[in-house]
Predict the structure.
Amino acid sequence: TKDKGRDGYHFFLHDLNTHLNGRMTMETDLRRGLQREEFEVFYQPQYEVASRRIIGMEALVRWRHPERGMVSPGEFIPIAEDTGLITPLSEQVLQHVCRQTRLWHEMGLPRVSVAVNLSANQIEQPEFVERFMATLLAHRVPVSAIGIEITESMLMRDLEGTIGKLKQLSKLGIEISIDDFGTGYSSLSYLNRLPIDTIKIDKSFVHDIRPSNNGTSIVAGIAAMTRGLNLNLIAEGVETEAQFEYLERIGCHACQGYYLSHPLDASTATRVLGAQAL
Ligand code: C2E
Ligand code: CA
Ligand code: CA
Ligand code: CA
């Protein structure tokens, strides 16, 4: 009936309002969080399979929210991207990473490269490459110490523009990884056109590993392909010994995941690196 329809409409409006208010609160909250520097960086070690040693770290942002406690990026990165706040947020993340890296170098800890996640909005900023490099320079961090992770979906938005910037960064010595490989619009043709050093195979493929399928799996196929293209392969989301051993058998270069280490706060990461120095 008519009344029922009206109620439905009101329900809809009510939901929409709650949704919009939620978004607005989050945006205001994000701005305040940026001003008060509530964002922190955690570091997840990447282990070379052959040596079982840490060769890199992935920088993963966390929000130490005054009321909500630790908030994970899945909750705020999408809103930061929609509102353009991803650019100042990424700048804070890179500053944290540079400061930390500089500190590790000064402490004489083993040199590992730290990879930061880029977003499409960020790389599309006109002065992106200049600002990125200026931050490294300001902290006296060598280019060999910092890497970037991009996703296939970032390439979809502006392939030519993105390729141009990645080439500039690569020429300057920044290592480039393709993140979540195989989940986006994977076109093998772009692999040849991009200055990529490493492929990070998505955790969904790692979780699909059945160790009994001796060497036949998507992961094994990607491993063979990266060898052919002379690229490094990192597996992410490695959660079990069986997955790790399988990845070792198929010649995967490095692994990252809960089986080896969760993302660590800066002081724990420092301790773990220090222990490796012994
Ligand atoms: P990602 O780049 O694919 O990062 C890997 C995610 O997998 C991280 O989630 C990490 O904590 C989680 N992970 C690590 N090992 C395992 C495992 O063994 N099993 C499972 N199931 N998960 C594992 P996190 O930290 O919540 O980050 C989520 C996403 O947020 C990231 O996915 C990345 O896309 C984005 N992100 C994180 N930090 C930043 C940042 O500083 N800038 C930008 N633009 N995006 C970021
Ligand atoms: Ca990543
Ligand atoms: Ca990933
Ligand atoms: Ca992901």
Observations:
- The pocket of C2E (ligand 1) is lined by residues 44, 59-61, 72-74, 77, 90, 93, 117, 119, 179-180, 203, 236-239, 257-258, 263 (CB under 6 Å).
